[in-house]
Amino acid sequence: MDTEMDTAELGEKIVKVLKGIYDPEIPVDIYELGLIYDVMVNTDNEVKILMTLTSPNCPVAESLPREVEEKITKIDGVKSTEVEITFDPPWSKDLMSEEAKLELGML
């Protein structure tokens, strides 16, 4: 019996964890906010997350990526996690999900 998880299943678990991490200034999770640009999982279950912040001067610029890395690394089956911050393209409200916009009264 194969107990190895496939990368798609692991990807879903990662998204679930990301949806539990909130920007401290906005009552919406970082996934729905559109701060997560990409989640890559290779066959060795090494995870790389490409994310941004709402602004380069974001007060959680240090702590948020570290929180993401720590919580993803704790997922059963994840071998390692690397979080890369990018501002290309810069974050904008257009990246937010409909759910996030609704939550913030923007729809």
From TrEMBL:
Tell me which stretches of the chain form a coiled coil: none
Q: Where is the MIP18 family-like domain?
A: 12-85
Which InterPro entries does the record cross-reference, listed alphabetically? Answer: Fe-S_Maturation_MIP18, FSCA_dom_sf, MIP18-like, SUF_FeS_clus_asmbl-assoc
Top-rank lineage group of the source organism: Bacteria
Q: Please state what the protein is called.
A: SUF system Fe-S cluster assembly protein
